[in-house]
From TrEMBL:
The keyword Phosphoprotein does not apply. GO terms for molecular function: DNA binding; DNA strand exchange activity. This is Homeodomain-like domain-containing protein. The keyword tRNA processing does not apply. It comes from Kitasatospora viridis. It holds the Pfam family HTH_7.
């Protein structure tokens, strides 16, 4: 089994890695929440008769992009 090296000289870098990881997890969580909100808002528009093409045009994306957003 390999020996563990002494990382005490690298403590600041290790702590920055931990912080970056925590931030990435937080941002992923937020992105998921926003994706759900976006999907729900688009579904509401669709229920009111707005087409996927209309939504796509307003957002400046393709209709296929809207379909992918709705699938999330």
């Amino acid at each position: 089994m390999p020996e563990h090296s002494d990382l005490s000289a690298h403590r600041a870098t290790i702590e920055r890695i931990k912080e970056a990881r925590a931030q990435a997890i937080h941002h992923t969580t937020l992105a998921r929440r926003f994706a759900v909100e976006r999907r729900d808002l688009m579904k509401s528009l669709l229920e009111q008769g707005v087409t996927q093409s209309d939504i796509a045009r307003e957002l400046g994306v393709s209709r296929q992009a809207i379909q992918k957003m709705l699938a999330c």
